[in-house]
Design brief:
Largest sheet: none
CATH topology of the largest domain: Tetracycline Repressor, domain 2
Radius of gyration: 21 Å
Number of helices: 13
Protein name: TetR/AcrR family transcriptional regulator
Keywords: DNA-binding
Order of helices and strands: HHHHHHHHHHHHH
CATH architecture of the largest domain: Orthogonal Bundle
Structural class: mainly alpha
Distance between the termini: 71 Å
Number of domains: 2
Helix content: over 70%
Number of strands: 0
Shape: globular
CATH superfamily of the largest domain: Tetracycline Repressor, domain 2
CATH class of the largest domain: Mainly Alpha
Strand content: under 5%
Pfam family, one: TetR_N
Length: 223
């Protein structure tokens, strides 16, 4: 097998193993997003990295192992972004708004994340189910919403019959569809909603719907 040095330096993979792994994951993410698990090839991934095919097998075992790590990295990135929002320091309505806005923007900026999740759904979530890390990461996402909802209820703002999981579903559904169905939607109805002003309007409406769902009816009416 070819043993191409990482970053153009002999033995580069030994000097910066984390950098090599990150490079492989970034290239593999794009390849899996474009071609799926079945269509992606280790040879193609290797050719676009700064390391060798041998090192891909060394770090990730095989193509399925690499795909599993790409899937974990995709979820880790979005959850790390949520962590940086520091929602616990915000009033509950503002925290919910910020989380919804972040999700919409993150998904819009990371179409490969959406495609990877779509591909994993084709595989019926089989690889996701194997990952303890993904379960922990996504449990943390619900815990954040649970904290927001608890503070909202304690303040007399939020309904008791809307759950954090339901709010997560609504935020994810609208943010996901905005990317996953962009090609078909725009070919049927035009591209206005996907221009900058169209995206801002959709994001604002999505946030209003999510917050309106969480608020008690009298709070929505300003009383």
């Amino acid at each position: 097998m070819d043993d191409k040095p990482a970053n153009g330096r002999s033995g580069g993979w030994k000097q910066d193993p984390a950098g090599v792994r990150n490079n492989i994951l970034a290239v593999a993410m794009a390849e899996f997003a474009a071609n799926g698990l079945s269509g992606a090839r280790i040879d193609d991934i290797s050719a676009k990295t700064s390391t060798s095919k041998r090192m891909i097998y060394y770090y990730f075992g095989d193509k399925e192992g690499l795909y599993g790590r790409v899937l974990e990295e995709a979820y880790r990135e979005v959850r790390a972004g949520e962590q940086q929002l520091e929602l616990d320091h915000l009033p509950p309505v503002e925290a919910l708004k910020l989380l919804a806005e972040f999700t919409f923007d993150h998904h819009s900026r990371h179409p490969d994340f959406i495609r990877i999740v779509m591909i994993e759904n084709i595989h019926h979530g089989a690889y996701l189910e194997r990952s303890e890390l993904i379960r922990l990461l996504n449990a943390g996402a619900i815990q954040k919403l649970e904290a927001i909802c608890r503070r909202g209820r304690e303040a007399g703002l939020f309904r008791d019959d809307v759950t954090p999981l339901q709010l997560h579903w609504h935020i994810s559904a609208m943010s996901f569809f905005n990317v996953s169905n962009r090609a078909t939607f725009s070919r049927i109805f035009g591209t206005n909603l996907f221009a900058a002003d169209g995206q801002e309007a959709l994001k604002k409406q999505m946030v209003e719907m999510v917050v309106g769902l969480a608020l008690k009816p009298e709070r929505r009416l300003g009383r």
